[in-house]
């Protein structure tokens, strides 16, 4: 996936201090902070590469990876942030 610059972003996160980058890179991640009835969320924008898009069309699923052992509340959406 390609990290995109989300419109109106309010923060940019870099790699964690202990990230060694040997297995995968960790680029800058612009996020938009949004307040919802359920509390604050940080929203980032991603674009599938051509190969990933072909895989999705062929039936592959999108995987969400969370670093650590606790699972925060997450959501995957498409379209405008409202």
Whole-Å distance between the termini? 23 Å
Q: Uncertain segments of ≥5 residues (pLDDT<50)?
A: none
Secondary-structure element string? EEEEEH
Radius of gyration, Cα only, in angstroms? 14 Å
Spatial strand arrangement across the major sheet:
2-3-4
Number of strands: 5
Amount of beta strand: 25-35%
How much helix, percentage-wise, in residues?
under 10%
Number of helices: 1
Structural class: mainly beta
What composes the largest sheet?
3 strands, antiparallel
Residue-averaged pLDDT: 91
Shape: globular
How many structural domains does the protein architecture include?
Answer: 1
Structure description:
By secondary structure, the protein is mainly beta. It has one domain (1-16, 30-82). Helices cover 10% and strands 27% of the residues. The chain has one helix spanning 50-57, and strands at residues 2-4, 11-13, 29-36, 39-43, 45-47. The strands form two sheets. It has a three-stranded antiparallel beta sheet with strand order 2-3-4, with no helix packed on it. β3 (29-36) and β4 form a beta hairpin. The radius of gyration is 14 Å and the shape is globular.
Per-chain topology:
Blueprint: E1 2-4, E2 11-13, E3 29-36, E4 39-43, E5 45-47, H1 50-57
Antiparallel strand pairs: 1-5, 2-3, 3-4
Produce a short descriptive summary:
With 82 residues, the chain is mainly beta. The chain is built from one helix and five strands.
